Amino acid sequence: MRKYLTNGAVLSSVFGAVGVLKATKQGPRDWRLALMWVSWGISVAIAVGTVIEDNKEQDAIER
């Protein structure tokens, strides 16, 4: 779990949610808001996937 919490890509994507939350509270509810949430979700998925792949590579190197 620590490898996810200390990874820069994961941290930046999670902190990116702050902007999306602000836009959700204050901005208009239109297709752009939905697109912001989708893009945030994709960025979190990519960051987590990168951590998983890095972990697999490290395990392969250690063997």
Itemize the secondary structure elements and their pairings.
Layout: H1 2-5, H2 8-15, H3 17-26, H4 31-62
Helix pairs in contact: 2-4, 3-4
User: Which term fits the overall shape?
Assistant: elongated
Number of domains: 1
Mean pLDDT: 87
Would you report the number of β strands? 0
Number of helices: 4
Provide the structure class: mainly alpha
List the quaternary state of the chains. Answer: single chain
Helix content: over 70%
Q: What string, H for helix and E for strand, traces the elements in order?
A: HHHH
How would you characterize the overall build of this protein?
With about 60 residues, this protein is mostly helical. It has one domain (about 1-60). Helices cover about 85% and strands about 0% of the residues. The chain is built from 4 helices and no strands. It has helices at about 1-5, 10-15, 15-25, 30-60. Helix 2 (about 10-15) packs antiparallel against helix 4 (about 30-60) and helix 3 packs antiparallel against helix 4 (about 30-60). The protein is elongated. Keywords: Membrane, Transmembrane, Transmembrane helix.
